Amino acid sequence: xxxxxxxxxxxxxxxxxxxxxxxxxxxxxxxxxxxxxxxxxxxxxxxxxxxxxxxxxxxxxxxxxxxxxxxxxxxxxxxxxxxxxxxxxxxxxxxxxxxxxxxxxxxxxxxxxxxxxxxxxxxxxxxxxxxxxxxxxxxxxxxxxxxxxxxxxxxxxxxxxxxxxxxxxxxxxxxxxxxxxxxxxxxxxxxxxxxxxxxxxxxxxxxxxxxxxxxxxxxxxxxxxxxxxxxxxxxxxxxxxxxxxxxxxxxxxxxxxxxxxxxxxxxxxxxxxxxxxxxxxxxxxxxxxxxxxxxxxxxxxxxxxxxxxxxxxxxxxxxxxxxxxxxxxxxxxxxxxxxxxxxxxxxxxxxxxxxxxxxxxxxxxxxxxxxxxxxxxxxxxxxxxxxxxxxxxxxxxxxxxxxxxxxxxxxxxxxxxxxxxxxxxxxxxxxxxxxxxxxxx
Amino acid sequence: xxxxxxxxxxxxxxxxxxxxxxxxxxxxxxxxxxxxxxxxxxxxxxxxxxxxxxxxxxxxxxxxxxxxxxxxxxxxxxxxxxxxxxxxxxxxxxxxxxxxxxxxxxxxxxxxxxxxxxxxxxxxxxxxxxxxxxxxxxxxxxxxxxxxxxxxxxxxxxxxxxxxxxxxxxxxxxxxxxxxxxxxxxxxxxxxxxxxxxxxxxxxxxxxxxxxxxxxxxxxxxxxxxxxxxxxxxxxxxxxxxxxxxxxxxxxxxxxxxxxxxxxxxxxxxxxxxxxxxxxxxxxxxxxxxxxxxxxxxxxxxxxxxxxxxxxxxxxxxxxxxxxxxxxxxxxxxxxxxxxxxxxxxxxxxxxxxxxxxxxxxxxxxxxxxxxxxxxxxxxxxxxxxxxxxxxxxxxxxxxxxxxxxxxxxxxxxxxxxxxxxxxxxxxxxxxxxxxxxxxxxxxxxxxxxxxxxxxxxxxxxxxxxxxxxxxxxxxxxxx
Amino acid sequence: xxxxxxxxxxxxxxxxxxxxxxxxxxxxxxxxxxxxxxxxxxxxxxxxxxxxxxxxxxxxxxxxxxxxxxxxxxxxxxxxxxxxxxxxxxxxxxxxxxxxxxxxxxxxxxxxxxxxxxxxxxxxxxxxxxxx
Lengths: 441, 480, 132
Known about the structure:
The complex is a heterotrimer of chains A (441), B (480) and C (132). Chain A has 441 residues and is an alpha/beta fold. Chain A contains 14 helices and 15 strands. Chain A starts with 7 loop residues before the first helix and ends with a helix. The interface between A and C is small, with 6 and 8 residues.
């Protein structure tokens, strides 16, 4: 099966028009010795019915869990039916980047509306049309801070998602920046005194997350004050975007960049992607932030319309002097997020509250078990870290019972011993939580 | 059209949140009230409001399903529907990335087999699937180059890039701490070998080359280019944005390239979704495999597992494993069409591009008059001189004929460039209709240039004031 | 057609002009020919006050919708004033490149540097042979 419409007769007719006798002649510029003499060694082609069967079998080799107790950067939330229906409009999903504004007003307006929703949720003035994911959004904000200030030191809270820290470190290595970790305190929040000691005039950016990897909510305001005291910039991330429904926006607390994973807004877990990175900032960085940005304007007749704007920031114009190399983003995931937010509206607050209650319940059930107790005293959203007798054994028991268990912390935080990170979103039913508590007895 | 915020009515809701089956605790009992927000400023709408709004927006948008989309360098081929159905199977969409490996054997097998297929297609030793887009793949590839020299204890400062390259190339290089030096193109649109020899030194880490290049031309001197770069110990990087011209016919690895990034959303038919998600896997020769990002999938017997055990890896460049669901579609595509189908892809992509080139050459001037690969580049200079009609006017007029315009003003080394990439999935009738529209516009430009300059006339909005948008940026809506 | 290049100032090959105000201070901007090439100016990134610049060092940026151009210091010295009106109305450069569209005032380190710049006549000859 393939998707070439030409009949052999049409091919001959077209070859005549070009003045060649065989399709092989089209490749005359490729030196003969480099042309493949045989077919590639790939499995044989399949008809549509066969491919459907093959792929269904492959999907069935996966095992769908009864429920998921894992958060750690990807969150299981209910996605209203309307989200899938809207992003499945092929006018959206089969379009390229909206370079031709007059026939792309649909997505351009949708991006403008998304940008507005994100600035409102994060307390900022500008939000781009998405980055690849939360981790790269953080890395690019940190690099931008360093380039803007001409400083080369980055401070990363150790309570940031371990994979995000590793991505930031990879980008920092490539640019010759130095990364230092900021320890956390007994609350699970950034140790402000330690931060004060680490900060200096060479510090470009301080990166934190709230809620952080342990699920703990940070008090961003005093951190922002400390950071700005050294004219450094604060990059404030978040784990689950739905937490924005109840938490005070980091923009209001003085963060210079707000970055985070937007998957929780209407995108399935998809075994890790595609997701969308949210990146928002203050007016001061409007002409510097990476990524696509849509602006409102008017046409020749005065009708309101939308265009990709401030493009001189971008690689296709500024080339090696661009603030980032990003071109493709995660537009369709962003559209899902926009439809999701439109669908939830003010209910986002209720949904976030429900997440807090679920996590509170699970935490109470588990900490009633012998040997299970909170690792940190700080307030949490829908995730929490517990000390437990044996995290790996607990996960093995959950796995055997058909659950995706929690995140064993020892790999990334040897100092936390057998700690485990668990998550309870609105998708986790009380009976599942009761069952989990029984299993872990 | 109304903005979604203008449609909002206090108290209106779409759907509802599930009732709590656990005790409801006052939030300020759990979280310090100083950390809580008072309200969420999002629009209040009914479900039908939302459906009508986004459906109306979709009707103001143009996708491949609506018509011909010859956007050069973007490979806007048809996106097979079965791929979408397959990718939305629960087994693929609903697993958490940290689900136990025992739960994810199907996904791991798919990733392992996809990397193997891409390696065979490109003549590379292995692929990482972690990069989320083409430019992200470029960055990853350049990081691999950096690591390669770091391990050898060599410090090289510069990467060479031809003047015809995509802007992402120099931007990726700069984001990796290298200097960019630009290699000139020669009179036939290839790399100027003399200039390359002059620039290539032991301080140069490598050359990033798009092949076929952005002029739609194959680098005929590839053997010599590779010899010059390798001769000084440099690495040859292939920007695979134009791989649609080569699949099944030749392999970048055989041509001497050490590294390649592919764009699954171009060559391998995954839809571009108005700008993404894409996926930009990176393939390398055996000596560079240790530097690929972690984690990587390993096969042991008939089981698959993730491995981080690659101490020389550049590290991570994205969270989790990349845009998995996009890979499901690309995998489905490769399994559907197989080796025979891939060869037919490049053959017919070239056939279509050369057909358009021949049909339009009496009307538009070719930038380089030689056989093209999967795309052809014209210049609108003749129209500018004859009637003051610019390439942008021609593009806008095409909208009135119902076509998505080609890429314009790129590559930058061609003035008034018009870059047409038809792809292999378009029929002869479609190509003929497009050519007739282009010919008709060429005539209009002569006879009635005012008409062309005032286009588009049929779109929901007319030409937009992008100067105003950039001078007084309005990037989020506020109630006036 | 570009406006005539006034005789009361000196010019660089990169299309900047510099005019002596009083003592060791010059006002600088870009020529009308340059603004024509740039098309509609949408944004000007002005140098910081007090910044020390060297002759022909890029120290400001002028942007149109689809291009970015470095602006070079015509002389070495210290930036003592910038045209803040350009922040809100960058189009002043299009309207009046030699007057209201000035970019910065520089206190010269070495006034003799001006001697090496071109006269209006020399500049016209330069753009006659190098239109871009």
